[in-house]
Request: fold
Amino acid sequence: MFETLSDRLAGVFTGLRGKGRLSPADIDATAREIRIALLEADVALPVVRQFIAAIKERASGEELSQALNPAQQVIKIVNEELIAILGGETRRLEFAKTPPTVIMLAGLQGAGKTTLAGKLARWLKGQGHTPLLVAADLQRPNAVTQLQVVGEQAGVTVFAPDPGNTSGVEISGPGGDPVAVSRNGVAEAKAKLHDVVIVDTAGRLGVDADMMQQAASIRDAVDPDEILFVVDAMIGQDAVTTAEAFRDGVGFTGVVLTKLDGDARGGAALSVRQVTGAPIMFASTGEKLSDFDTFHPDRMAARILGMGDMLTLIEQAEQVFEQQEAEEMAAKLAGDDFTLDDFLQQMQMLKRMGPIGGLLGMLPGAGQMKEALANVDDRDVDRTAAIIQSMTPEERANPKIINASRRQRIARGSGMTVSQVNGLVERFFEARKMMSSMAGQFGM
Ligand code: GDP
Reply:
């Protein structure tokens, strides 16, 4: 999902490459492109407006960090604003002080409620809970049987209108009373000491007054601790209208986005939270019961930006790099005048930022780089320092002149072998090549 949006945003960031600073015209143009990207991804207009206003204000504001170049600044701001519209903090389930905790599921038919009931039950069971599934969708043919199937897959008990009936005979249908089933289900959970009850309710193909009324009656009968509004992320802009209808008709404490695996646009995900004010709590990403997880706004934003852990790196860079160092280094990285002194300085900066291996793992597409520098450890930094400090200033500034006899002299001076010196020089040229290609990639 989010491929179109990711691609578009990547294009915006590439456009900022090599800019020394952002002029008001640059900010306007960037904001306009981000706006188009969001609209194309089906993000609701009011959400887009607010997003763009925030980006513009922050990009021209005083808060800009000197440790980052304009492309990084914009990535950082967009990331933080994405996290904000996705809800900021991860919102976890709230459990009742006196069990059972009652979780009611609501949403349109086909949204993925029944599947979700099984996923949630499996997930809760994995955390040591003892959930009971209650089949209160008596509308959709087969919904009860389907819940029994997912319940079995999850290894969780299902409370159905006729619990004695395990023959697979059709027991669902508009004849039953879902309110009574729900109430009895909660009573059953209390009696059998289940600590969580998940009530699967009926949906219709569209928003419908009867369905809303039924859901509201179930809500009143079971007094849920959480009402989760389940919404198919593939329905685009309709997700927002549906969410508003459920908010007004039943109310909900959290949102579950389903079918996130299928959508290239996914603007619904970016709009629902902002429009309804309710947090997105879970995300479903496939038909299997395991395709399910807690929704983390920060991880989702990172995924949309397609930046791997580049964002973490930006954060750390900001904390560690001093302004001067960072600016000079960024300028040098881009060019061929990256010297052995810079190489050493960089290694020392990296050392300050934490274990070098971990750091390399954070760079997107750093596979080949990781391999090339796999052997770099902290002791290596010290050895490198010894070798480079045995070079003349001329050699450090212009490593091409380091010929065989110079290498021998440097080896003697630093107490290293000639092959260690060779290795370092080789690595330097390799790193320089990689630095300049990375600098291009990230607009440094
Ligand atoms: P309900 O009517 O709301 O109970 O919806 P169902 O649980 O029956 O789901 C409707 C269809 O969507 C089923 O075919 C599910 O297998 C499918 N489905 C549910 N969640 C997901 C998901 O996250 N990804 C994909 N690809 N399919 C899903």
